[in-house]
Amino acid sequence: MSSKHIPSLKKLYIEQVAPALVKSRGYKNLHEVPKISKIVLNSGIDAEADKNQIADVARDLAAIAGQKPVLSKSKKAISNFKLRENQVVGAHVTLRGDRMWDFFYRLLAVALPTIRDFRGVGSKLDGQGNYNLGISDFTIFPEITVENVKKTMGFDITIVTTANTDEEGRELLKLLGMPFRRTEQQVAADAAAAKTNAA
């Protein structure tokens, strides 16, 4: 009987990241160790979009996420935005478990590195240990066939963690491989450390 596939990033978390967090933060209980609880992908849809465009967004988001998205509808009409009540205004997917780990791995290992002149992502979290990332061009994901794309779509990725603080959440994501941009202070500190070591 074949053993159950464990996503590589989940394996990394269990074997290396969680023990490293326990060591650096001194958690007494395993339940205190921060982890990723879910990842939400959310894409807005133009108020003027026709059925075909809505179907394309849903198809592409499903291909990227590996699961069918839920369409969000407007609750009331807003004439200034040409918005009718019950009109489709977005699509979102909530990933948990192995699908969440598989998506996160593809984001880190495949999608982000293909961005031209990529220098890392911002290191700011939302104040509650969660991280938001905006993707302006979804064709960085290999599941998307560029020839089929009529209109470039962007979407937001929200990585929800169980961390109590931004520092804990940032350390968790960094250990998992999130390519945070180095700040000028970090660059200066590294340069000073290298100078000291060389002396």
Mean pLDDT: 85
CATH superfamily: Ribosomal protein L5
> What does the overall shape look like?
globular
Query: Into how many domains do the coordinates divide?
Result: 1
Q: Tell me the structural class.
A: alpha+beta
Low-confidence spans: none
The CATH topology corresponds to 50s Ribosomal Protein L5, Chain: A
Task: Describe the structure concisely.
With 199 residues, the protein is α+β, with helices and mostly antiparallel strands. It is built from five helices and five strands, in the order αβαββαββαα.
Description of the structure:
Helices cover 37% and strands 17% of the residues. The protein is α+β, with helices and mostly antiparallel strands and 199 residues long. It has a single domain (8-198), classed as 2-Layer Sandwich (50s Ribosomal Protein L5, Chain: A), CATH 3.30.1440.10. The radius of gyration is 20 Å and the shape is globular.
